[in-house]
Specification:
mainly beta, Porin, three-stranded antiparallel sheet, 3 helices
Length: 457
């Protein structure tokens, strides 16, 4: 496939609305596609790290736990996600299509944090800076595969959260914390739009009317924040945190190659700018950690994620129109939205750690169940979510003030078969012939590996 270039030869708005179709899936991958545990040490506990948070990963799980990072600390860890997606599509005519498999590249997913506790403030305040990316897969498929109307590639997509946080010791046994966050979100998406014009009686999946499209959009400033509280006892800890939602407002451009059918000669597109808006959820976490001895810690946790806030993704073209359209003249492109119909999720997890050699060697294990954010009706390779079971193991080795961490988790996701898809192919020229593109069987699994190093001073 030759590189996609923006072409002046467009018909009835296919280029820009192809971009809109492309951008919607690329942003929608957030829904149900961020894995529920991140960070080498918390991963070993299956994300059970709300009550037990006492290192810089607390910036993500519970900022009150930053009070446990000592007079100063630094933490660096890197995760790798190996996600596999196999899709056997059933097309709009009820015909089984050849199966496709995602080709996920290997992309290191970082966390970096530092904290310090100023003595002049009575050692009651701990300040921290942390930056991290969520654990997710970056799928890629063939341009001509049966999944092409849903997704070709998300390669180049990136999300990074930066946080400034403070934790305060209100009482010896009571900590509170809060963080100010900014999400930098950049998406690069490739997909294919069906562009059958209204005056032709063409098949809705005729490859002659395919419009390969690449969309890029960025939201450099998307503020949010989180809050947390911890209560400490000799034999247990109780924690809770609240991650506030993100309201993403992204701007971008589009590059499209027109279909091969000669019907698409002669038109010119003016403008290539679009704005996109969507919401990412509020997350509430609670945890109870038992510490029956100094060497044993076991935490039971519950998370709630308000994914129903993403009811739609909305797109607004900025003075973009198609000129010299035969029989039309000038055709302005209007705002549109795509129904997401996301649903709230919950997860239950248990994890713990055991000091095998006190202050030298620690082992961990955990289990997590998370419900799906995507109903059958809107499931596709864009968001191949499902109920998840996560089994994890991990460990740490201490060498003086240095701690080396490692964690591994395997995601088991039951296969899903969709027969009543509402995930439609987008055809901006003749929308009444748009057909479902989400029917078929989905088989998804993932392995997560993470390693990190912490130093305290």
């Amino acid at each position: 496939m030759t590189p996609i270039r923006r072409s002046p030869r467009l018909r009835r708005g296919s280029a820009l609305l192809a971009a809109l179709a492309a951008l919607a899936p690329s942003l929608a991958f957030a829904g149900g596609m961020f894995f529920p545990a991140r960070g080498a040490r918390p991963l070993g506990r299956a994300g059970s790290f709300v009550a037990g948070a006492d290192d810089l990963e607390a910036a993500y799980y519970n900022p009150a736990g930053l009070a446990g990072t000592g007079h100063g600390s630094a933490l660096l860890d890197v995760g790798l996600v190996f996600q596999s997606v196999h899709y056997d599509r059933v097309d709009s005519g009820g015909n089984a299509q050849p199966g496709v498999d995602s080709d996920n590249g290997i992309l290191p997913i970082p966390f970096l944090g530092v904290s310090w506790r100023p003595e002049k403030l009575g050692n009651r305040f701990t300040f921290a800076f942390a930056a991290w990316a969520p654990y997710t897969g970056i799928p890629q498929y063939d341009w001509t595969g049966p999944q092409r109307y849903s997704l070709v590639s998300l390669g180049g997509t990136a999300a990074l959260v930066a946080e400034l946080a403070v934790a305060v010791r209100i009482l010896p046994e009571l900590y509170v914390g809060a963080g100010f966050q900014n999400l930098y979100f950049s998406v690069s998406n490739k997909t294919v739009l069906a562009s059958c014009p209204s005056q032709l009686n063409c098949a809705p999946e005729d490859p002659r009317f395919d419009a390969p499209t690449q969309t890029k959009a960025t939201s450099a400033f998307t503020p949010s924040g989180n809050l947390g509280i911890l209560y400490l006892h000799k034999y247990f800890r109780v924690g809770a945190s609240l991650q506030l939602p993100y309201w993403v407002r992204a701007s971008g451009t589009v590059a499209t190659r027109i279909p091969s059918d000669p019907q698409f000669d002669g038109a010119t597109v003016v403008g290539n700018s679009i704005d996109v808006s969507l919401n990412l959820p509020l997350i509430a976490r609670v945890g109870f950690e038992a510490r029956p001895t100094k060497r044993v810690r076991v935490e039971l946790g519950f998370d709630y994620e308000n994914w129903s806030t993403q009811d739609a993704i909305r797109f607004t073209p900025n003075d973009v129109y198609i000129d010299h359209v035969v029989g039309v003249g000038r055709y302005y492109l209007k705002p549109m939205s795509i129904d997401r119909s996301m649903q709230d999720t919950y997860s239950v997890h248990i994890g713990g750690e055991l000091d095998v050699l006190r202050d030298r060697l620690t082992v961990r294990a955990g289990y997590l169940f998370e419900s799906s954010a995507v109903p059958d009706e809107t499931l596709s390779v864009l968001t191949p979510d499902g109920n998840k079971h996560l089994l994890t193991v991990g460990g740490s080795v201490r060498i003086g003030p240095i701690r080396l961490d490692a964690g591994y988790g395997h995601v088991f996701q039951p296969d899903r078969t969709v027969t009543d898809s509402r995930s439609l192919q987008l055809n901006p020229i003749q929308p009444n012939i748009a057909v479902p593109v989400g029917n078929g069987r989905y088989a998804v699994a993932a392995d997560i590996v993470s390693a990190g190093i912490e130093g305290r001073f």
